[in-house]
Amino acid sequence: MRVLYVTTRQWNPGDEFILAGSRRIVASAWGQPSVEAIYNKSPQVKSLFDRFNPLRNRSIGKLSGVFDSFVKLTEFDNSHSWFHDLEFYDAVVFAGSPAWFGGRVADLYKQLKDFPGKILCLGIGTPNKRIEFSTAELSALKSAQISVRNPELVDSLQKFGISSSYRPCPALFAAANQRQVESLESLAMVYTSDRGQRYQAVSTEHYRKQNSVFQQILDSRVADNTYIVCNYIDELERAQADFPGVEIRYSFDALSYENILHDADLVVSSRVHGCGLASSMGIPNLHLGHDSRSSTVNGFLSERANASAPVDWIQENRFSLNRLSSRLREHRELAFNSYLDWLGHGATVDASPELDTAVC
């Protein structure tokens, strides 16, 4: 089978956690694909306004090279683009994230109009914008098999005649390995900032609440080792300035985050998918919510932290982490098998099958 995943690369590790979980679902339900390519909707690659560019047209042929250095007609990130043939693939899989319709995927939806293969949406989420579809989007989504990660999205889609069902976000299956937490010795705090790239930043109000929570945790010395995890490069210098002397962990490679969290016994995260990866690994976690998409963490069995008393929750539950960790591991297996049943693969299987790690 040849599969095209709709995702981002080198943009948001959370999207790549969803991709990893989606690949695990596909490999277990359909078998390991012989081809795995991506449609990269990273803002660096796909502009909201590409569809209005008159120079992006097959008919201009070699002339595109003349303009390319100035107006970015082509894309060289090793991903599916507007000039590639979609019919090469047997299936198109939207690997979660709220950006599953609109400008960055407009070219793809045009190609999906006559696509004869499978269209699968795994864990798409409620966007922070009004839901309205083009004719091409509506046609493709009505023919797709769709799971959503926010229950309220089921009703929203039904208003357009689009069928869907709720299941936890595929990031729940991202990690290759799980561990059993026994006690609280190490704690990871997943950081966000109100500065830097606007799609990565949070509000100043949330940023201040987050830092207050993190400082309470540090002052309480509730864990022997406490460290900060950054997901985006703009956050590094700010995190160091906010928490001098605290260890900061970061990687450009989303696959490295499993190793970054490997020794954490508890994760406190402002990022939804910091919680998702933690739950996937069997690590109990608290989420500091900052927008409507935070309901996604319910599917991870994350604790929704009260910003005024996170340390109280940690103190009350520090001796229950073993039970919480076991519950997460059981939840992952049940949720994974729910996906396989939904896709018509009824057999119970290992929720952590080996995957090829390269995505072309």
Largest sheet: 6 strands, parallel
Number of separate domains: 2
Work out the strand percent: 5-15%
Specify the number of helices. 11
The best one-word shape is: globular
N to C succession of SSEs = EHEHEHEHEHEEHEHEHEHEEHH
The rounded Rg comes to 21 Å
CATH topology of the largest domain: Rossmann fold
Helix content: 25-40%
Alpha-beta content class: alpha/beta
Task: Give the strand order of the largest sheet, numbering strands 1, 2, ... along the chain.
Answer: 2-1-3-4-5-6
Average pLDDT across residues?
87
What is the CATH architecture term of the largest domain?
Answer: 3-Layer(aba) Sandwich
Give a nutshell description of this structure:
Keywords: Transferase. The chain is α/β, with parallel strands linked by helices. The chain contains eleven helices and twelve strands.
Describe what this molecule looks like in 3D.
The protein is of the alpha/beta class. The chain folds into 2 domains: 2-166, 3-Layer(aba) Sandwich (Rossmann fold), CATH 3.40.50; 186-330, Rossmann fold. The chain is built from 11 helices and 12 strands. Strands 2-1-3-4-5-6 form a 6-stranded parallel β-sheet. Strand 1, helix 1 (13-30) and strand 2 (35-40) form a beta-alpha-beta unit. The radius of gyration is 21 Å and the shape is globular. The two termini are 14 Å apart. 40% of the residues are buried. Pfam families: PS_pyruv_trans. One of its GO terms (molecular function) is transferase activity. This is Polysaccharide pyruvyl transferase. Residues 12-292 form the Polysaccharide pyruvyl transferase domain. Keywords: Transferase.
